[in-house]
Specification:
- This protein is an alpha+beta fold.
- It has 1 helix and 3 strands, in the order E-E-H-E.
- Strands 2-1-3 form a 3-stranded antiparallel sheet, covered by helices on one side.
- The longest helix has 8 residues, at about 25-30.
- The two termini are about 15 Å apart.
Length: about 50
């Protein structure tokens, strides 16, 4: 099973990213197309609700 990170942004939108082994936090944010200052909350989940 894969792990996903769910980012809730300050504007209320959500971004879901499948985690890659060995990837840094900054690389993950770059792949998601967001900046750290935009993040309101983040959660690590095994299966996002949309899948």
């Amino acid at each position: 099973m894969y792990n996903f990170r769910v980012y809730t942004l300050r504007d209320g939108s959500k971004r879901i990213i499948k985690l890659k082994e060995g990837e840094s936090f900054k690389e993950e944010l770059q792949r998601a197309g967001i900046q750290e200052t935009q993040i309101f909350q983040m959660q690590l989940v095994e299966k996002p609700e949309q899948f």
